[in-house]
Specification:
Layout: H1 8-22, H2 27-42, H3 48-63, H4 69-87
Helix pairs in contact: 1-2, 1-3, 2-4, 3-4
Length: 88
């Protein structure tokens, strides 16, 4: 049975979740997290429902990060990115 094709943004969000988990041990993971966020922002065919899912997921990922060091910066970035999607 063929797998159901998922929207690209869901794959990007899953990669962002994995990178956020690596932020504690790798500055490179923080850079990659930001690159994925930029890719997500370039998506032009998102519905209102998709944008709502993106906002919720970004905030969930941000909540998993502490408020110290690189994690703090990544958390702030994710919150700012979710705000940008809310305003879109």
């Amino acid at each position: 049975m063929p797998r159901k094709k998922m929207p690209l943004y869901t794959n990007v969000l899953e990669l962002m979740r994995k990178k956020a988990a690596q932020v504690y041990s790798s500055h490179q993971a923080q850079k990659e997290l930001i690159e994925l966020g930029e890719l997500l922002q370039e998506s032009s065919d998102l519905s209102s429902q998709s944008e709502a899912i993106i906002v919720r997921t970004l905030l969930e990922i941000a909540d998993t990060l502490s408020s110290e060091g690189d994690a703090r910066n990544s958390r702030a970035y994710l919150v700012t990115l979710s705000d940008a999607f809310r305003r879109a």
